[in-house]
Amino acid sequence: MKIVVALMLLTFAVSPIFAIDIERAFEDDAQQARYERLSRELRCLVCRSETIADSNATLASDLRRQLRELMAAGKSDEQIMQYMTDRYGDYVLYKPPLAARTWLLWAAPVLFVLGGGIAAVIVIRRKSHLPEEDPADPGLGAS
Amino acid sequence: MLRYLIPAGVFAILIGFFFLGLGRDKETLPSPLIGKPAPAFELPSVEDPTQKISSQDFAGRMYVINVWGSWCVGCRQEHDALMQIAQRGEVPIVGLNWNDELALAQRWLRELGNPYVGNAFDAEGRVAIDWGVYGAPETFLVDANGEIIFKHVSPLTIEIWERDFVPLIRASKGSGT
């Protein structure tokens, strides 16, 4: 029983209470929301699968500071993203830009759904043309 | 016949993708700064923090920027290679000490030797961000026009130096720039 309780208590260890970037960056609610959104769109380049909002790497906290300063200086979203890609390339963006190099990446989900749909239609069509009972299979009850 | 060819073809394409993915280096990110002017910097010197070290000090000369920190294991690993490269004297090596503590950085240079002509102390990592640094050790080659012409991420070895850096240094010096 004690073990069960201990395990249940352990689940609190992953609660968002322990989020990395907890200090409020801006007094203004709209600015704070914008800060949180932008920090979720930028990749921490040390720990590649984390955004700078989620990571406690030094580089992530340095980039968060940079983001706060750029926002405080009145830079637009585009200017901030440009600042980051000028230094780190497109990889710093969690959402890659739509470009000639990336069209396949963006089109892939559509292509997969289309391909699967076409295959499904072909199979269903063919199956519906088959006779109701398979002459090769006498079925249950046949002796 | 076709009903066997299509799945076999799809399978072959997939295998092709996977095979190409196997050989790719997914760790090293291409730097957008190659071919661009090296970002300017002015920072206190690690050796003597009352002195400044700036990119202006190296204007008109080819030089190497090596990003390191006393916390960085890969930097310790490449340190011998840097000492040897400094001995060869092909090009001056400037250290960019990144997110470090001054006393630790100074002790590092004292204990392991100092291959650098100077070390810039970037405690806040601002210059490192301008240079697009994401993981020490990183080594940049800046030509006499002040342009970054090459970047290497991960510990340097003499083999890497001779393969990637030396030809660029020769070519750049040969063209008289």
Low-confidence runs of at least 5 consecutive residues of chain B: none
Going by CATH, the architecture of chain B would be: 3-Layer(aba) Sandwich
- The helix tally of chain B amounts to 5
| Structural class by helix and strand composition of chain A | mainly alpha
CATH homology superfamily of chain B? Glutaredoxin
CATH H-level name of the largest domain in chain A... which superfamily?
Answer: Cytochrome C biogenesis protein
**Unreliable residue runs of chain A:** none
The helix-and-strand class of chain B reads alpha/beta
Tell me the series of helices and strands of chain B, N- to C-terminal: HEEEHEHEHEEH
* CATH class identity of the largest domain in chain A: Mainly Alpha
Question: Tell me, what's the shape of chain B?
Answer: elongated
CATH topology of chain B: Glutaredoxin
Q: Could you tell me the mean pLDDT of chain B? A: 92
Number of domains of chain B: 1
CATH architecture of the largest domain in chain A: Orthogonal Bundle
Strand content of chain A: under 5%
Give the SSE string of chain A. HHHHH
Question: Quick one: biggest sheet of chain B?
Answer: 5 strands, mixed
Instruction: Count up the domains of chain A.
Output: 2
